[in-house]
Amino acid sequence: MIDRYQLRYFLAVVDHGNFSRAATNCHVSQPTLSAGIAKLERFLGTALFLRSSQRVELTGAGTRFLDHARRIESEFNLALQAATAATDRAVLRVGMLRSVPGALVAGAIAGMLAIDPDARVELVGGSERELIGHVARGRVDCAVTLVGRGGDRFLEEPLIDEGYALALPAGHPLAGEAVIEAEALAAEVMIVRRHCEALSETSRHFTERGVRPHFAYRSTNDERVLAMIAAGLGLTVMPDAYRAAGVARPKLAGFKLRRSIGLIYAANAEGLATTPPAFVAALRRHLG
Q1: pLDDT digit string (tens) for 1-52?
Q2: Are residues 98 and 194 in contact, defined by beta-carbon separation less than 8 angstroms?
Q3: 22, 29, 79, 118: which has the highest count of C-beta atoms within 10 A?
């Protein structure tokens, strides 16, 4: 018999691309996750992954098993939601991209409660890849994440289109400039937003211009990053929507990258787009 935890381990490896990140996501040690995958493979009588020191890929059998595993996990979540519906009043489960500003999320929550004071929502944070997995498995009803990136697995609803800009202390000598060249920042100390979907493009932009700064801080918490910038620790590149007292947001010359943030809906939850609950309606007002 296949246990549910084995399916969760299998899907986590597929969604995260390696055993280490999958184990972290499942809140187990890597040996525990590996043992669960091995037990599943023994039961099925075939290998599901091709393992190497650099990457993990699905075998042919693993690819065929994947669709069934996602369907089973999705049905389990639907059954769980149905079983708890009597005591769990219409909880909307929403995936939330980590690089969406907390102020925007908070504004949507406030708007939701203004529409319906009894509305309930569960927020599940994650990266773009993690949220796609959550939607595909029915872990969430919809997700606020990057859209328009070529996928056709889900219904997408774009809400905001924005670029990226520098974030530097308001007291910085260049803070009053509208646009700053990367070369002017060669001697600056910088902060790395490790979860940023534009991290590789940002690094390339500076490297191509001969800028290799010292990094004073690496974080996945954007509110803390803004606090460190306001305190004068360093500067970084962030989406335009981020604002904070003591932080200036001039443009980075030649950096044209943009992103589109919106909603993606699970196949069984596409009705949310046409008959939106309070949170989705508030999110549209706040971001649209």
Answers
A1: 888 889 999 999 998 888 988 888 888 899 999 999 999 999 999 999 998 7
A2: no
A3: 22
Cα–Cα distance measured from residue 155 to residue 151, given in angstroms and rounded to the nearest whole number: 10
CB 229 within 8 A of CB 235: yes
Which residues is 169 bridged to in the sheet?
Answer: 247
CA distance 168 to 190: 9
Q: Is 132 left (phi over 0), alpha (psi -120 to 50) or beta?
A: alpha
d(CA 96, CA 101): 10
At 180-234, the pLDDT tens digits run 999 999 999 999 999 999 999 999 999 999 999 899 999 999 999 999 999 999 9
Q: What is the pLDDT of residues 132-149, one digit of tens each?
A: 989 888 889 899 999 987
Q: How many whole angstroms separate alpha carbon 129 and alpha carbon 153?
A: 13
233, 237, 243, 249: CA torsion to nearest 10: 90
Distances (CA, A) of 261 to 100, 146, 166: 8, 5, 19
Residue for token pair 């549910």: 4
Cα–Cα distance list, 128 to 1, 11, 98, 149, 237 (Å)? 32, 15, 8, 11, 19
Q: Phi first, then psi: give them for residue 216, nearest 5 degrees.
A: -95, -15
Please, how many CA atoms are within 13 Å of residue 175, restricted to the half-sphere of its CB? 15
